[in-house]
Amino acid sequence: SYAVNDDLTISYAQLTSEIATKTDDEVITQISASYTMGSMSFGGYVAKQESTSGSAGSDDAAKHITMSLTF
């Protein structure tokens, strides 16, 4: 995670999971960011999963955005 300034934070992660009974490793890659302005906060991520559960060709992707307000 890297704080660009007091309001903006970005992060990158990659996880490799080796499954003993499978020939392919499961790989998950994700980038996320969050921005805070007063009582309002925005956040989101984009993630990609390759070889889900060690099955070659079984890929997935996800995107998520949130907004929250504090009173």
Share of residues in strands = over 45%
CA gyration radius, whole angstroms: 16 Å
Unreliable stretches (pLDDT < 50, length at least 5) are none
Between the first and last Cα atoms, what is the distance in angstroms?
27 Å
- Approximate helicity band: under 10%
Instruction: List SSEs in N-to-C order.
Output: EEEEE
Task: Give the strand order of the largest sheet, numbering strands 1, 2, ... along the chain.
Answer: 1-2-3-4-5
Q: How would you describe the shape?
A: elongated
Query: Given the structure, what is the number of helices?
Result: 0
- Count of DSSP strands: 5
Main pleated-sheet profile: 5 strands, antiparallel
What structural class is derived from the secondary structure elements?
mainly beta
Question: What's the rounded overall pLDDT mean?
Answer: 91
